[in-house]
Amino acid sequence: MISRQRNAAKMEKMQNKIDAGLLSTRFPEVSSIVINMTYYHKGMNQVLMERTVNFFPGSYAYFNMECMSKNCTDGGFDLDRVIATLVRSHKESGEGNLVCGGDNSYSGHSKIDYKVTIQYGNS
Predict the structure, then answer these.
(1) Partners of 117 in the beta sheet?
(2) pLDDT, tens digit, for every residue of 44-81?
(3) 51: which residues sit within 8 A by CB, 6+ positions away?
(4) Which of the four pLDDT bands, split at 50, 70 and 90, describes residue 92?
(5) Beta-strand relationship, 77-78 and 64-65
(6) CA distance 6 to 75
(7) Residue 85, CB half-sphere, CA atoms under 13 Å: how many?
(8) Considering the chain, what percentage of its residues have pLDDT values greater than 90?
(9) What is the pTM for the complete model shown?
(10) What whole-number distance in Å separates Cα of residue 33 and Cα of residue 91?
(11) Is the dihedral of CA 86, 33, 40, 75 positive or negative?
């Protein structure tokens, strides 16, 4: 039963990526996007991990990063609006933080600090 649920969740995530389209289609003026993230969680050692995700024209334009907190369901960090705003404004970078709104036994269980760097054209 659990395996079936995991497979369904993976299939849904893959469909969401396909629905988002390719970066080259959604943002044809963009040659690359780099997202640097620091994940935090409650506890003694608050930094959970640092992660860098690269997007190129052939990548899916799916910018919903998973929550790394155990037992979190339907959570994550949706950077879609952040990236769309940066591209619309033709900005090369932006940074901020997001809190996971997923279901967990306690609120505020996870957050990220992010920095997005965008290259346009043949930069």
Answers:
(1) 34, 93
(2) 678 888 999 999 999 999 999 988 777 777 778 999 99
(3) 36, 37, 38, 39, 65
(4) very high
(5) antiparallel
(6) 15
(7) 9
(8) 53
(9) 0.83
(10) 12
(11) positive
Amino acid at 74: D
Q: How many C-beta atoms surround the C-beta of residue 51 within 10 A? A: 15
In order, the DSSP letters of 55-93 are E-TTSB---EEPP-STT-BS--EE-HHHHHHHHHTT-SE
The two tokens of residue 99 are 């809190």
Please list, residue by residue across 56-65, b when 16 or more beta carbons sit within 10 angstroms of its beta carbon and e when fewer do: eeebbbbbeb
Q: Are 109 and 42 in contact (CB under 8 A)?
A: yes
Bigger pLDDT: 68 or 31?
A: 31
Pairing of strands 77-78, 93-99: unpaired
